[in-house]
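Ticket #4471: complex job returned nothing on first submit. Input attached below:
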Amino acid sequence: LTNSPQRTRRRFQRLVSEAKVAEPKLPLVHTTDAFILRDIIEQEIIEPQICNVFNGELLTYFFYGRPSFRSNQNEDAVSLKHYFPVCLILRSSIIVDIERIFPFDSGGFENNFYANHIHKRMLLGDFLLEPTSETPGKLITTFFGSPSSYLRAQALPNPNIDESEFEAHSYMSLINSRDSNSIDSRGSGVEIQVGHGIDLNGSVQAIVLPSVFVDGDVGLLLKKLNIDIIPYRITDRSRPNEYFASVTDACYNYYTRSGIIDLGDL
Amino acid sequence: VAILARLISASPDGPSLLLPVFRTRANSNSEIVQNISFDDKVLGFQQIDTNPETGCLLDQKIEVFVGDKALWAFRRQDGGVHIGDHKSVSDACLKAIDSGIYKKYPVRAAEIVLFCRAESRFQHILTNAFDYLLRESEKTAYVWRDAAIFTPAVKADIDKYKFANIKEYLESAFVFTKGNICHVFVHEKIIRSIDNLDNLKLCTRIFGIKSIRLHDTKKLESHSREIHTWSLLGIGSIAHRVVRRYISSVNINTVAITQGSNTSSLLNDKLKLIVGIIGSDINHADKLSFSWSNIYNRNRVTRHIINVRPVGYGSPSQLKSNPLELRHAIPQTHCMWILAGHRLRKPRGQFSSLSGASLAGSMASAATQALITAQATESGQKFLEHTYREPGLGIVGVGRFDRKSPIENSINRALFNASSEDTDLKTSERITAFVPGNVFSGKIDLKFGGIVLNVNLVEVPSDRKTNNVVVFCHRIANPDSNRDRFVDLCIRIADYEGWSLERYRDQFFTIRQNTITYHVYPLFSKNEIGNFSEMNSKTDFDSIFVTRFHVNEDMQRFASSIGFYIVHYSDFASHMLSLLQLELPLDESGYPPPA
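Support reply: We reran it on our side without changes. The output follows.
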């Protein structure tokens, strides 16, 4: 899996696989930037990209329910994804074969961003989860309790996990941290990798995008594809993490209006 | 110091605020952007990775220091760029608003008004953008208003109180407007402390929202509940064809699960539904049984299996489990529905095996959809309740719905497709039909294969787009491979293709269409063909053997030697049609008349 010849551990995978699946199932989110969106819409496909972490494999990345994205090599740098993020919200049914699932952004692990939480001898493969569509729901049950808490990055305060589950305790430390990962909460977003492209037709429910696109050509193209447009403001805040907060707010509101998240009797 | 290098816009054209990108030195490759405080000062800079070809370069040299007023930029509609502090850029923006850009760019105009903090003055720009989005979709408009206007407004209100954990409080604030009330979810400490929501009040007033209600964010977690009303599980290649519409899965020998909900208000009673799709592999049945035992444990649930009979058209395989064995392997099943309609007519051509699987997949999908649809209507729920209270074995048939002919014809087609060599639908205790576009429940009497059947109709909501009629024949006599049932199936196929039964003898039956007559000899077992070895050779080919087995060359040669045709029952219908077209006199155009 990684460049290390050491055998990976399966404790974490086993722990998660034993859990019940949290309901309801959440959509998948593919994050890109406003410039790449145009290509995606014109070609009507999300193309897989060569991934350096996984030996040059062609992969398409998603995060389960959460607007998040793969990290850059350079931790300190932001990118246009921070300033003009575009999140495609896709029906979870569209994926035929899942290649891998990780409980966090695997690029962040490889770039050593989680070093404060994860033991240096732990390998990325120690966190590899079963590649089935039930797995994200099981992880949520184990560490967050409910999809709503997961979406709001609120981990269970005391998930009652045996002390010998070292990887699980490292992961708990990561998802409870409010420091380095607050920029986009990718430390606790479930990453799903697939080895193929995704046809836009019928698979995308909605696109969260900068509001300047809504009344331009992109808005017209999306209308033709029958995709819900969720615009967010690009000028209400001036720090990158606040842009992502706007996107997260919009996603959560959209899920609530779509009946995925239930607010009970208001 | 930071030197302005270029300006990046999210959108290639039209009026827009731009992102200023700086360099630390004029010839530096490394680019940075400002970190700006709420009072609009430069707190510092942050490195940014972008494509260096993005954005427009500048002629003028502009420098910014930490502690300076932040630099903003606006591109006018004519492409000209205005650069300056918040106030000067706001002035340029508002001039653009006054010049009428909102007519062409209503949402951008609203964003500019919000950037300029000029909501009171340009209320109509905000409502105009909302109305524009409302024409796109309600969801788009309401999400935009909540997330892009009300949420930043309430966050600005919270930010005025210098709470210790302000970052966490700002991140967790959530706004959701329902009807005339703006619900604001914030940390309980804020509910206790805050007494001024001026920004939010101003914004809600613009949209005629009369009330603001504060809730503890904990409420968001406590109301996450199980809302699914149905679950669909599948294992094996055909099942995965159906389930794959909803779900991903690694391999076909694992159980794929998907879940969904019917939002009908009739669901208060919460009879949940589980549908499992399997073929004839007993190992698959075991796996499915294990997977569904943990679903909806706390609810009343009716569990249905759709058993897709083998796709192959040859001899019945001893390795395949029969429906009774499968049902025994999944003890919690309320109803097992045998699906065998795909076996009645063998698809032709190069990809026939693929077409068989595809047809079976489509039929299983239609049957699944009908069961799920049942949750959404009163008569459908009665049907599900009935299956819950009176478990049993049944058969399911799917037929194409013909809107131009009476619904009886479509139901007959589905009933025909429910037929199979080892079941007898006449023994069914209750037949239920789901017909598209039928908005009433009720009962009809239907003539089918010489008998009258009483069929219950279930209404199908008009928003369910389907072109299939699905019939469920509940609680049939146990499947049994015997000669009578096989003969019955052969007669039914002939009848369905328009051949009437003339005569019935022990060994054969005679069918007729127009002036053409054939004798049909059903061969239930392989050795039956030996009974005809003494028969004298004929040349008129007015007799047909119909078998359950793969027709090999020896059988073909023998049949031919005594003047018989021989076909598998899945080829019977098409064979009779081709014979009919051969024998009927040609019409004036030189083609045989349609059968």
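DSSP finds 17 helices and 26 strands in chain B. Closing as resolved unless it happens again.
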